[in-house]
Amino acid sequence: MAMGRRAAAGALLVALVVLGAPPAAGAELSGVFQEMVKSECHFINGTERVRFVKRFIYNRQQYVHFDSDVGHFVGDTPYGEEVARYWNSDPEWMEHRRDAVDRHCRHNYELSTPFLVERRVPPSVSISLVPPSSSQPGPGRLLCSVMDFYPAAIQVRWFQGEQELSEHVVATDVVPNGDWTYQLLVLLETPPQRGLSYSCQVEHVSLEQPLRRHWEMPPNTARSKMLMGIGGFVLGFVFLVLGLGFSLCRKPRDGSGMGTPVSPLRVTPHWVLGAHPGSG
Ligand SMILES: *[C@@H]1O[C@H](CO)[C@@H](O)[C@H](O)[C@H]1NC(C)=O
Fold first, then answer.
1. 42, 43, 45: residue to mutate for ligand 1 pocket, most atoms within 8 A of CB
2. Where are the domains of the chain?
3. Domain 124-216 in CATH: superfamily?
4. 43 CA to middle of ligand 1, Å?
C-alpha cells in the first residue's frame, strides 16, 4: 500500500483520469479529473542557494507540498494534511525527498548550463510613433519595442537628449514569447516635441555596452507636402519648355511639319568613317 502510493507520486508528472465511456468521436465526456504534480527548482544564486518545491494538485487545487527549506510535507487542505502526516512518517521516503535538491536541481543545473545558464540572445530594439487615438489625441506617443532577448533580466530607459525621463514612462511586464525569448514594450506617456531628440537605451547581459536608439520628429508634413508640390511644378515646367523648344527647332525643315526624324543611332559620325577608310 505504501509502496503503491510512493510510486504513483514519484512517477506521475501529469495524469488525466477520464471517467465514463471512452471518448468516441463527438461524444460528451461525463467528467474530467486532473491530478498534477509539479517539481520546481529555484536557483537563488547559481547552485549556491537552491530550493526544491514539489506541489500536488487535484482539480486545480494544491492539497499538499514539499519545500526543501522546510524539510517535510505540509498539507494545504484537510485531506492534504492527512497525506502529509502519512508521507512524513516514512524516514526513507523523506530522505529521498530531501536529497532532490542535489539529485534533481543541482544536477540539472550543471547539465543545462551550456545552453540554459549561459544562453544569451541580444534584443532587437526599435522606436515607433504610436498614432494618436480618440482617447489620446495629439502627435502620438513614442514606443520602444525591445524584442526577442534572453535571459529575462533587462533595463530599458528613455532619454531626452542626455536627460533621463524616469517619470511618465510605462512598461509592460517582461513577456515570455514561449520560445525561450522575451519581449518588453516601454511607452513614453508625454508627447514628443518637435526639435528635441529622444533615445531609448537598453542594458542587457548579452550586450557589451548599452544599446541606444535615437528618434527625432520628422519635418512638418504639411510643409514638406507643399515643398514637394512646388518641386513637381518646377520639374513639369522645365519639361514643358524643353518639349516646346524641341518641336519648334524641328518643324521648319521640310515645311510639312511631318518630316521623318533622323534617328541619332543611324548617323555615322565622320571620325568613324575616317578610321575605316576602305569601308565607304
Ligand atoms: C553567490 O554565491 C557566490 C559563491 O558562489 C558568493 O561569492 C556570492 O557572494 C553570492 N552572492 C550573493 C548575492 O549571495
1. 45
2. 2-18+31-116, 124-216
3. Immunoglobulins (2.60.40.10)
4. 12
Contacts by 198-201, CB closer than 8 A, 24 or more apart: 198/127, 198/142, 198/158, 198/159, 198/160, 199/158, 199/159, 200/125, 200/127, 200/142, 200/144, 200/156, 200/157, 200/158, 200/159, 201/156, 201/157, 201/158, 201/159
Question: 201-218, pLDDT tens digit by residue?
Answer: 999 999 999 999 999 987
Residue nearest to atom 11 of ligand 1 (CA): 45
CB-defined site of ligand 1, < 6 Å: 45-46, 48
Q: Which CATH number fits domain 2-18+31-116: 3.30.70.2470, 2.30.40.10, 3.40.1390.10, 3.10.320.10?
A: 3.10.320.10
Report how far ligand 1's centroid is from the alpha carbon of 27 (Å): 57
Q: Is the pLDDT of residue 111 over 70?
A: yes
CA 110 / ligand 1 centre spacing (Å): 17
- What are the pLDDT digits (tens) for 74-100? 999 999 999 999 999 999 999 999 999
Pocket test for ligand 1, best of 48, 109, 117 (most atoms within 8 A of CB): 48
